[in-house]
Every structure is written in C-alpha cells, then in structure tokens.
Specification:
Chain lengths: ~130, ~130
C-alpha cells in the first residue's frame, strides 16, 4: 500500500455521521459506530450528529440483557480516545422525547436543527444512518 | 464528476439498491466516473450469487455484475456486515471453516476503510438507503 494511503493520502475532509435511529431495534446505530471507529484511523475532520430517535443512542443506563443483544453503548465513551469529540444533539429531537442534556453519557453540544443544518452545509461527506 | 456510491439496503425488500443501480448506470453513461460502489448493512446481500428471483422480475445481482464488467467498476462488500449476514468469498469461507461461499462475480469483500477512502477520493459520496 502506498505511503499515506491508509490515512487518506494527505487529504482532510469534513465527515459528518448522522445518527437518526434508536440504538438496539435495528443495526444501524451499531454499524454506524463501527464506521466511526474505523474512520478514525484516516484522521479526517469528524463530527457526529444525533437527530430524531438517534438521540436515544447516547442516553445513560442502557441495558440490553433482556434483548440478548450486545450493548455497544459504552463504546461512545471511548470516542474521545479516537479524537472524536464533536458530538451534536438536535435540541428539538431531545425535547420532543422529554430528554435533557444530563441524560447523555458523554459531553455533547445541544443545538437547534437550524444550527445543525448550517454545520451540515459545511460538510464534504455526510454518512446517514 | 467522480462519485462514490453507498448502498445500505438489501435487494428486493427495498428500492434503494434499484435506485443505486439506476443512478450508477446513468452516471457512467453520461461519462462520469464511479470511484467505488460500497455495500453496507443489508446492502451486502446485493452480492450473493445464490438469489433466484422469478424469471419475469429483474435479477439485481446479475445487473450489478454486468455493470461492473462493462465499466470495470470497483464493487466492495463490507466484511464485518457480510460476515454477520452470511456473505462469504472463497478465502473467508475457508478462514471461518464454512463449507461454501456465495459471492457473485464482480464483487469483492474488504474493510470499512474502503468506504472512508471512497468518501475522501470522490467529489461526491451518494447514499442509497433508508
């Protein structure tokens, strides 16, 4: 493999992962997180947005024992070690679900959908899950 | 324009893979470049050669394979998503002690890094999914 190819060949783009679905009912949240973790090796400018039911992915106290599925939620706490620190939560989505910012297990920036739309506008690549 | 394509849903259940195919074909016919088509989530099932759809319906896998052959398309199936869903090539089948493989011609199995790289290298990454 060519030198530097693994990290994207010296190109840095703005990558946003948009998480729209609740964590355990479908596989999208888990497989989104897998992309984020692999993608971290490419040293891109990464952010994660949580909108609609996606806001549930970050809530504290998730317990999947009864579902017999792997609880991947603690992995969100490891994102900081991968230099993934820009986590945005849509205020409207949070409020519609009766949640407040202290419901989340990691530090997040709560912003309006309008603000989020402006940040999306600046992105090079948006991966929506 | 240089495009990369992400297919996130399986064939027949969902329109996404049909639309992805039509978009990819139209872009190529217009002279655009497709850097890579990446199959993720249930999208990996586009690449099994064991589907037998009714004869009066489209054959989604064969359509992708023919397109790949005509235009030398790079069609990549995510290995992690594929393993969960029983999509194997010869070496993965051997490595995991399975007695068969089912990958269709024109597809290859590789890692998620190929998706990130596809996003970096293309002018646009277009997602077809739910």
């Amino acid at each position: 493999m060519e030198e530097g190819m693994e990290e994207g060949g010296g190109i840095t783009k703005k990558f946003m992962y948009v998480n729209r679905k609740a964590p355990h009912g479908t596989i999208y949240a888990l497989e989104s997180l897998e992309v984020v973790l692999i993608g971290a090796a490419f040293e891109q400018d990464v952010s994660l947005a949580f909108i609609d039911d996606g806001v549930y992915q970050l809530t504290k106290g998730q317990d999947t024992k009864g579902l017999e599925v792997k609880n991947f939620a603690p992995t969100f706490r490891a994102l900081e070690d991968y230099d993934v620190t820009k986590l945005y939560v849509a205020k409207e989505s949070m409020e519609e679900r009766g949640l407040t910012a202290d419901a989340f297990m990691v530090p997040v920036e709560v912003m309006s959908k309008q603000q989020l739309a402006e940040i999306m506008e600046e992105q090079d690549v948006i991966l929506s899950f | 324009m240089k495009f990369s394509i992400l297919v996130s849903e399986g064939p027949y259940t969902h329109q996404a893979s049909d639309t992805a195919y039509q978009f990819t074909k139209a872009a190529l016919e217009k002279g655009h470049e497709i850097y890579r088509v990446f199959f993720y989530h249930d999208g990996v099932n586009n690449g099994t050669r064991l589907t037998v759809p009714p004869q009066d319906d489209r054959n989604i896998q064969k359509r992708w394979t023919a397109l790949a052959e005509k235009y030398k398309l790079d069609m990549v199936i995510c290995i992690a998503a594929a393993q969960r869903r029983g999509l194997l090539d010869e070496s993965e089948a051997k490595r995991n002690g399975k007695d068969a493989n089912n990958i269709a011609p024109g597809f290859r199995i590789s890692g998620l890094g190929q998706l990130i790289e596809a996003g970096i290298q293309a002018d646009r990454l277009v997602t077809f999914g739910d």
